[in-house]
Amino acid sequence: MKPASFDYVRAKDVADAVKQLVSMPGDARPLAGGQSLGPMLNLRLARPKLLVDLCRIESLKAISNEGDAWRIGASVTHAQLEDRPLAGCEPIAQVARSIAYRSVRNRGTIGGSLAHADPAADWPLALSTLDSKVVIAGKAGQREIAAEQLMRSAFDAGLAEDEIIESIRVPKLSSGSAWGYYKFCRKTGEFPDAAAAVLLDPERRVARVFAGALDRPPQPLPAVARALAEGGAEAATPDLVGAAIDRAAPGLGPAARKLRATAVQRAIRNSLS
Amino acid sequence: VSEHGKPGQGVGARVPRKEDARHLHGRGQFVSDMILPGQREVAFLRSPVAHARLAGVRKPAGSPDSVFVRTDMPEIKAIVAPSTLPNFKISEQHPLAHGKVRFVGEPIAMCVGKTRAEAEDLAEQVQVDFEELPALVDAYGSKNNSSVLVHEEWPDNLFLTLSLDNGFDEMSKKADVVVKREIQLSRQAMVPMEGKVALAYWDDRANQLILYASTQTPHIVRVGISRFLGIPEEQVRVISPDVGGGFGYKCIVQPEELCVCWLALRYRRPFRYIEDRREHLVAGANSRQHHYTLTAYASDKGRLLALDAQVTIDGGAYSNWPFTIGLEPGQATGNLPGPYDFRGYRVRTHCVATNKPGFMPYRGVARTGVCFAMELMIDAIARAVGRDPYEVRLENLVRPDQMPYDNVAKKHYDSGDYPRALRMAMEKLDYPKWRERQKRGEPDGRLIGIGFASYCEQSAHGTSVFAAWGLPMIPGYDQATVKIVPGGGVEVRIGVHSHGQGMETTMAQLVHEVLGVEVARVQVVHGDTGTTPFSTGTYASRSIVMSGGAVVNACKALLPRLRKIGSFLLKTDEADVRTEKGSVAGPSGSVSYADIAEAWYLRPERLPLDVDRAGLEASVAFKPARDTGAFSYASHAMALAVDTETGQVEILDYVVVEDCGTLVNPMVVEGQALGGIAQGIGTALYEEQQYDANGQPSSSTFADYLIPGPTEIPDIRIFHLETPSPYTELGIKGMGEGGAIAPPAVIFNAVNNALTPFGVEVNETPLTPEKLLSALEKAKEQETPKREAA
Fold first, then answer.
1. Adjacent-strand bridge partners of A52
2. What is the ipTM of this complex?
3. How far is B240 from chain A (nearest CA, A)?
């Protein structure tokens, strides 16, 4: 399959990108790393008349230390995050390393992944669990939203046609924090069938557990987080985790439910080691 | 991988493949790399529905020379692939759908553009009115449905039914235990790296239609193009350059090839079609799907006495040319008994038409299915009689003192020591070590499973076997031409095609074995009907036996001619010279083949007056003394771990002991085994095209259709036995398919061994984590673990 014909412009800066997107309402699409949009174009599932390439916008490629947080530009690739550990945000490099294959990571971007809003993708789950904020630019200016609020439903990041993601702000963890991440992939590099992330940062009074790779956005499991914070790993019993999965994703069959509960338990286990 | 091999460059040496350099450097020549002046690209509009009448097809305005439907090309005959098997029903496959579409992906219109994208734009503008019909997606349902017919001229949906009963009643009576199982395999695509391709043009100088195609069988494609397009065969030349994997997908005449050739004939310019991955997965999911209901009758020790089998093969919509839909049921019926010695067999095999792509022969042809079914039964029998599956398997194998052995389905096993391969696999795996570890339990809670599978693989079966199936093409003699060129190098021309088999190397090794010429000085020419002798091509693990046998004999034919000229140049008696290392040597010295070739081609005044005027070139036709096949065989053994919390399986050790007769190049044999095993692991654990009730396939990209990648293939340890075939040249047996045969069987046996404490048995490919978890969750609901691992 080859794409239907489209025009292509390379945006100079964020304002230019927004202007280009507004120029063809409904028919323009931002292009980041293209690792999902590319195949969709080839399969003619996406048929924009104009592609607005964001990859040359310098401001979107920056990574900056803001004291209590790191700010990551939306066009930073997974590979760059894999190769550059961010002090206090070590989970970022760890998650980046597990995304697909290196060839995908060389091009795919953190902002592109959030905007594509695949519920099985790593960044929506990891950044939600890390309590990150997403900065969005549009013709009305900037807005900020919690990563866990971004995805409205599968493949819908709630972005207006004139909006692009500018950056992601990831709070730094305390030295005593614990991070656990687990995903179950049928083969290396594939999207997972089940995924979960755990963040315990008692110093900052943070305890967050999310289940990902559902048919909906990553879901918080507050009961599991509370049990972990108050009673440690033993408190997160299989029954408690199973019940949390039932609330987060009702109606799963026995095998699917078991796999998702396993993912949560293994993320907890990984947070201990 | 072993170090097994002989020194030097001849038969048995681990000579590195000559073809690797160009492929590793990205310098292979595939049809997709070719661009000819004025070339146009072709795309097909394919049916989005599985079963419908075509009420109307409307082309976009102004496209009389760029959009084509069936009625535009009356010159092309429908593909009809009959067989003389009893009750065989004939399907008519038109190059573009005619009247009806019978599967999702069937081509309806052909569109031409300057680029593929332009051609696809046109395809989108073609409007088709479908009168949808109920889709037949389940072979069982289809078999008994006579109100909805895939082919309306048939009374039912059965391509054919094969039956056989040999001693069943007599032997089954003696049984102490009866074991019944249902076993099935999913529908698969073959997924070569390169799909179908066709680039055709008319060559005015040669007065020929030139077709560049990715095919295993250029000479047979030439026959097919000539017949279905109605042009004389001498006006067709088929060239198959580098081919990115065949596996059976490329041993037939493709409708798309006919269409592109038709364009070239009509417009006299180059046209090219390249199948993309989506087309391949949707329109090319056409293999492996078998269903078995098996009842085994055994003694209380697990000795198999009789087998009752009902086999249902989901044949899809059309019979392919030239192998026909009959090949798969024929091979399933005859090969189900496997390497086992038993004397009661009753089988009924149905091949059913459904609204899916037509079944095609895929590496292993039916034997992956029958091996899976039979090997699961052997383990089920062992569990039923409370014995070790290894012991039961060993006791049921045909013994070396029974060779040659005619099995209960009249297959003639030529040679081998089947029990020895199994014993050796058990030892190499270190079975007792794994049993001990299994008993001890894993620190991470995973369950250890140990499995075995044995099979024999009919290779290079020839005239008598294919004639019994009555195909449109029966292989006979394969020809090879060997020529010593000026300078003393050798040109070998073979009609088969090498696309991963390493024949550019192994054929050169055969030449070296007979003529002593360095492998580097042997040029193997293949893949072009204009420059090679006729062969039915590369399939059925036949090339090294058939074309290889012809090459050996052609080389032998040159020996006396070389000695004649050589002795004359040495001024000695012909009886006193011998050939060695690329020269003719006598008591007083030696002359090189280069000197002899110089005399023959350029300095005829040096030749003896009575020189053999056939010169330094020989064309020889060959087939083995007995053409019922040389049977390779192997035992696979493995240990794996099952994660009962995720359903994931990890292979911890994988051992192969194989015997393909005389080894020409152990490294090539090992490469073939590894590639086949990778595909077999795909069959076992990953690959599946599912269909919904409307016949819509579930997978159209690699996101949904999973194939194993490098990290999913474990280290595989391969060991060799060498029992020469009594029937073939040098005792060589074919082995190209074997690797793909046993992996599903050995993996499922190991998993079932691991799951024994849960009373859970799996018997349906692919073994997805979902399926495994479901089975375990279901078992947990029913009862707690009841016994220890067997």
1. A9, A30
2. 0.95
3. 24
